């Protein structure tokens, strides 16, 4: 018999704020976190906007000496994990350390460090490369540094599954606990890819928005005038616990994880297939694990990237799975406000789905000024909606054809 898994702690740093509270308030206010890129000179770049963190002080979480050794994505993971553990009122001591694991995904890892140190080789020679370059670059070092910092000695992993990485991390953690391999998991995604190579690479693919004059309007999922997604940075971390473990320590429970799906399109390197059969199958698998019918889902936090293909094909996949009920489900894309956090998106959006269930608020899709006729669902335009939510689904899909879906529900005994 599988064990029940609940969520007891949340932590995040995003373009909307440097905490869950600030991020959630920004989402509920329908506020955009997108602005002009400040991390590098964008002269010559078609895209000059991104979702950067604002007023984030890493020294609140790491010392000066340690900070020098870490890529930003690792710092974001450490900060968010600290906030999530504090929120869960959980201290990892020797009695539980071997039953606490960490899975933190990242699509790209320490890209900014990689770019910087390649310049060092060109300008100063290979002997001048920074001693800690490789540990700072490796994608698994978000999870590794969190494990070291907090003494978690259980299962550790790092999904590098493009934009589905954070969702895979939470879903895999759910399975690890439910099958008895750990009692607690620190799970989510971290990314810090607002860098020259990332922006240039997506530019030549024509995947990201070039609406530089109106940054806050650039991410516009399901709108006919969408022209690509907006690259963002940050991290979202959840604390997952086995139910009896959480009860025994008197933990506050936000929600329960009940379903997870993971599939591949087996279709194309970067494009989803028409109708997005892989996404539909992924949602169906999550429903089956949860033991739910489509009519039991109240809210879907959509992948909703603001790209021409994804928004239409995700809509078609939702129609395939939910049939007539698709018109009754509230569907929104919080990427309209946060931008696309790549490998961190699933962690942040899982957190938002959990808050939606816990608070009874459906976040809006902002910038939906001229709905695409091919996107005809209830996308909760412009303003949040107060409504009791018993179940929420969070969708993430990534390059390489990877799909991941989570279902969380209101906790009841």
Radius of gyration: 20 Å
CATH architecture of the largest domain: 3-Layer(aba) Sandwich
Count of separate structural domains: 2
Fraction in helix: 25-40%
Could you please describe the fold and organization of this structure?
By secondary structure, this protein is an alpha/beta fold. It folds into 2 domains: 5-248, Peroxisomal Thiolase, Chain A, domain 1, CATH 3.40.47; 259-409, Thiolase/Chalcone synthase (Peroxisomal Thiolase, Chain A, domain 1, 3-Layer(aba) Sandwich), CATH 3.40.47. It contains 13 helices and 14 strands. A 10-stranded mixed β-sheet has the order 5-4-6-7-1-8-14-13-9-10, with helices on both faces. The protein has a two-stranded antiparallel sheet with strand order 2-3. α3 packs across α6 (141-150) and α10 (277-290) crosses α11. It is globular and about 65 Å long.
């Amino acid at each position: 018999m599988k064990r029940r898994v609940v969520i007891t702690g949340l932590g995040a740093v995003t373009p909307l704020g440097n905490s869950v509270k600030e991020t959630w308030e920004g989402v509920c206010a329908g506020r955009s976190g997108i602005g002009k890129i400040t991390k590098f000179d964008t002269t010559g770049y078609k895209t000059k906007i991104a979702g950067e963190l604002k007023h984030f002080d890493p020294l609140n979480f790491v010392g000066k000496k340690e900070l020098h050794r870490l890529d930003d994505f690792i710092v974001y993971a450490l900060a968010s994990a600290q906030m999530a553990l504090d929120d869960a009122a959980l201290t990892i001591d020797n009695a539980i350390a071997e039953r606490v694991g960490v899975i933190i995904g990242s699509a790209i890892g320490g890209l900014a460090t990689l770019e910087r140190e390649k310049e060092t080789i060109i300008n100063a020679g290979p002997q001048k490369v920074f001693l800690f370059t490789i540990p700072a670059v490796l994608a698994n070092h978000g999870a590794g540094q969190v494990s070291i910092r907090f003494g978690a000695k259980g299962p550790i992993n790092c999904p590098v599954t493009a934009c589905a990485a954070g969702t895979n991390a939470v879903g895999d953690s759910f399975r690890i606990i439910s099958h008895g391999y750990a009692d607690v998991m620190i799970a989510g995604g971290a990314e810090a890819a607002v860098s020259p190579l990332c922006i240039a690479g997506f530019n030549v693919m024509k995947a990201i928005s070039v609406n530089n004059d109106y940054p806050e309007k650039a991410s516009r999922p399901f709108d006919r005038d969408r022209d690509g997604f907006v690259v963002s940075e940050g991290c979202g971390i959840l604390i997952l616990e086995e139910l009896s473990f959480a009860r025994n320590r008197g933990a506050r429970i936000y929600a329960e994880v009940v379903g997870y799906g993971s599939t591949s399109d087996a279709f194309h390197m970067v494009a989803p297939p028409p109708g997005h059969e892989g996404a539909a199958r992924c949602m169906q698998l999550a429903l089956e694990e949860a033991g739910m019918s489509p009519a039991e889902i109240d809210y879907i936090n959509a992948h909703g990237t603001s790209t021409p293909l994804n928004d239409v094909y995700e809509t078609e996949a939702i129609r395939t799975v939910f049939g007539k009920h698709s018109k009754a489900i509230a569907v929104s894309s919080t990427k309209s406000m946060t931008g696309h956090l790549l490998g961190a998106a699933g962690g942040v959006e899982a957190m938002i789905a959990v808050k939606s269930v816990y608070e009874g608020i459906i976040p809006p899709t902002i910038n939906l000024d001229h709905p695409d006729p091919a996107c005809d669902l209830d996308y909760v335009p412009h303003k949040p909606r107060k409504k009791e939510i018993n179940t929420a689904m969070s969708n993430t899909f990534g390059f390489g054809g990877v799909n991941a879906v989570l279902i969380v529900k209101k906790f009841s005994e």
